[in-house]
Amino acid sequence: MPRSRRNGNLLDKTFSIVANILLRLLPTTSGEKEAFTYYRDGMSAQSEGNYAEALQNYYEAMRLEIDPYDRSYILYNIGLIHTSNGEHKKALEYYFRALERNPFLPQAFNNMAVICHYRGEQAIQQGDSEIAEAWFDQAAEYWKQATTLTPGNYIEAHNWLNITGRFE
């Protein structure tokens, strides 16, 4: 049974009902509807911390979804799971793939910057200031892109860019 039919949460049930109504009303193919169902089930599983189930649903949605914009959000969510699991290299790969399909995902740029900043902090702890600076410079580039796309968002990143002299 699809996850969307077994959720006990009122919010999830409401979302599922509205999504099902929209799927019936919008002119979409059966493949697009099926892809959306897997995507929705992936989001539900992800929100509950069931990452393995979420990944299965996202991979199935990727198999079915043909629209690059929609695929970008699936790839972004896969990146989120890998970030949560501490698999930063994999996460970066999925964020890059999402941005290839949709270069207007500031949240992907932000998450990439956070990973790079984290790696910079790790390099400092290991006593490698040169590597740390390279990671911080890369974080700055990603945060610049995120803040350019959504001025007024990512205030902490904007402040960090100013304080470290990396904001141009």
Automatic annotation (TrEMBL):
Residue spans of the TPR repeats: 35-68, 35-68, 72-105, 72-105, 120-153
A GO biological-process term: photosynthesis
Main location: plastid
Domain of life of the native organism: Eukaryota
A Pfam family annotated for this UniProt entry: TPR_1
Keyword Lyase among UniProt keywords: no
UniProt keyword Thylakoid present: yes
Location(s), subcellular: Plastid membrane; Plastid, Chloroplast thylakoid membrane
Record Gene3D superfamilies: Tetratricopeptide repeat domain
Entry membrane topology: Peripheral membrane protein
Keyword set, alphabetical order: Chloroplast, Membrane, Photosynthesis, Plastid, Repeat, Thylakoid, TPR repeat
Cellular component, GO, one term: chloroplast thylakoid membrane
Family the UniProt entry places it in: Belongs to the Ycf3 family.
Matching HAMAP family: Ycf3
Function noted in UniProt: Seems to be required for the assembly of the photosystem I complex.
Protein name: Photosystem I assembly protein Ycf3
Organism listed in the record: Hypertelis spergulacea
